[in-house]
Amino acid sequence: MKLALSLHEITRRDRSRIGGKGFALASMQRRGLRVPEALCISTQAYMEYVSSTGLRDQMHMELFRKPFDEMRWEELWDTALRIRDLFIKTPMHCRLKEQLWDLLAPRFSVRPVSVRSSAPGEDTLRTSFAGLHESFVNIRGMDSILEHIRLVWASLWSDRALLYRQELGLDVEKSAMAVVVQEMVLGERSGVAFGMSPVHEGQSVIEAVYGLNQGLVDGTLEPDRWILERNSGRILSHHAALREKILAPVPQGVRLESLPRKLRHRAPLRNREVKEVYGLVMKAETLFGSPQDVEWTYSKQILHALQARPITTSAPSSEDQRPWYLSLHRSFDNLKSLRTQIESELIPRMEKEAHEMSLMDFSALPDSALAQEIRRRRQTHKKWTAIYWHDCIPFAHGMRLFGKIFNDLMKPEDPFQFMTLLRSPDMVSVRRNQMLENLSELIRKDPGNKACILAGNQDACKPEVRQLLERILDQFGDLAWEKGRLGQDRGRLLSLVLQMASRTDHGNILKAQKPRELDEAFLSCFEEAQQPYALELLDLARASYRLRDDDNISMGKIEGQVLAAVAEANRRLQERPVFESGTAEPDDLLRAVQSESYFNKPNTQAQPSVKKSGFSLKSRQILGQPAGPGMAMGKARVVIDASDLFSFQNGEILVCDAVDPAMTFVVPLASGIVERRGGMLIHGAIIAREYGIPCVTGVPDAVNQIRTGDFITVDGHLGIVIIGEASL
Amino acid sequence: MDKDLSQVKRELRKLLRTQSLAVLATQNQGQPYASLVAFASSDDLKSLYFATTRSTRKYANLSGDSRVAMLLDNRSNKASDFRWAMAATATGTAAEVAPRERERALDRYLAKHPHLNDFVHSPTCALCKIRVRTFFVVTRFQSVVEVHVRP
After folding, report:
1. Is A620 within 8 Å of B136 when comparing Cβ atoms?
2. Which of A87, A103, A116, B23 shows its CA 20 to 30 Å from the CA of B122?
3. Is A201 exposed, middle or buried (0-12, 13-18, 19+ CB in 10 A)?
4. Which residue of B has its CA nearest to A622?
């Protein structure tokens, strides 16, 4: 089997080894359609690469660390990043490199190319998944071409592909990726044409943008759109886009630039050209025997087909969450506008609404009005939860986008090194913790304060203690987590602060110092002209890191206001004489308190596994993801509700289902963190890194497998939690 | 928990059924000693059997300290073992099978290793039984659960 084939050499027999994209290009060329010159790197090259370098064995280790069913999408993303990193760091063996060099250099050593994925079998799927694998455009120079071939290979295991692993039949031993290295046609106008509209069988659709079509394909640019009658090609309608940007080639890759003014008012295609593109997509349909989706470009008024593949129309079932995950991949520009929205609109609005609610004087409300207020606050909370999912969660992709670019440029030993660049002591949760820390410091310095607190007489504490406490309560007192508010019970909060004060080692202190050198090393990878972009990228990623934590705090405040109203109602209900509760007429206030079950999560630990027939099962060592380096040993504190949280003792290991910034004020006391929810870029991992404490996330069923008081070891280097002592 | 007890027991039974050889660990004055032995097991997973001549080092070790460990695994000697192989370490105490149990244990053992018929019937050979206290079951390289057997 040859390592590479030119388009004219490809026959039907080669299809499984050069993938659908390569095969389609060869077929089009044979039938006289204008396609750019290309060389198809067969799956043989991939196979040789992963065998000779030992990568295949390493992939077994990375991919099957945990059963796929137990992995969240975030963990799949992390896994894909680790695998990508393996491909980036593992050079080709000399022999393979020389062979590919000899094949590619005569054609492409001085010409720009696009390096495209061509996965075998992908185009024969019942459903087609655009964009599961990666393609790169405007790549120049042999070294860069070979490097991008490795990136395309790596994308066989992209997070998106892993989501669809069953449909794709992904198998470490058998799956392989082919690559099309194609002469770059630097078109002035480009787009996609659908022979048959995915939503209307009798129509065709043509989309077009100025510049290269990568921006259209990945959703960065909104295209002009023409709807045509499928049978005749008659134009039915034209939707003009807001044309502002253009994806333009730069020396290495592409860049988003602003579209020259004179082009903004002119559609990228004239009607005559729309028809020509329609002709192309129909020719492709005749050739392949089914409606096609064709990428095309106009270069110097000449139409080129860049790739073609069959259109599939089966709609995903509504049960399928995966399209939502795919939608989390956001472009740089989309993330930038999302940031502005969260930072200058959503968080201030949440804070404002929470503050306004906090000013309400319940004593002035009769029961019926209080009942109404509870309902109103629940509505508010519901509204914000929806906004949080819609806008705040997707912004986490800012970190991911940065991580990928950072790794491509820096090739770091640790694929998550980029996180250290993003650390921020400006997070609201960290500021809150620092205030608590300062309070504990005041108490530590003056034992008189401690005595007052222990005696339950906080008012006798020194004025600076009282003032700081008031400030904390004012800013964070209503912050809620699992039915409890931070300031709900001053005594409880102060006993936690006493815990902090009692430490002899001064506990965990913030380790967040931005490593200047790393900053500079990253920025130096960009050319002068690209510096503003690099800085913007870094700034966006830092905002993504920080705001992902901050928005939760604001959400916690809204939730706190619901709880405050419910607490007031409960107080009134309890004060009523007992006989009233049995009246025939259901009480409106009681109904308002009970109406919603959204706080009623089961909050007890499951019973230990039942002994059956003389056997009992106990977990000894559980595999999660290494999310904060270091090792900790200590007693577990399983935190399920607020009372667990306030019972936290210095040096214990925090074990919980999902770390929430509203409860991370105990983190300075913790010697380690274990979390059921998995991922490297989630709250638990972020706060652990801020304090430099070991953290393992993605531990299946952590709160049931581990019990408060268990002696556990947290290995944050390897992502392992060991329960119990070493002795047998 | 990602697995329940019945699932782990099912996997253990399969491992014990499909493997013929296991590594037996004994000790003498703190010096560990490992030997490869042919083993069989009881249906209830509570007993493991192996045979040895009475002149062996492992037999001498057992006479001094009956505590043993036995490693059972299904590795295929490939890198993928790190994800797909299963290993179970059984700990417990070993002793020669009591005369009243001998016939049944022998049947069990020879059903699995018929070619060892002459060996086990030799007067110098001892058929031994491990009363298992705990199985430490390792999957995916680092995922470990303990199955405790009540005496």
Report:
1. yes
2. B23
3. exposed
4. B143
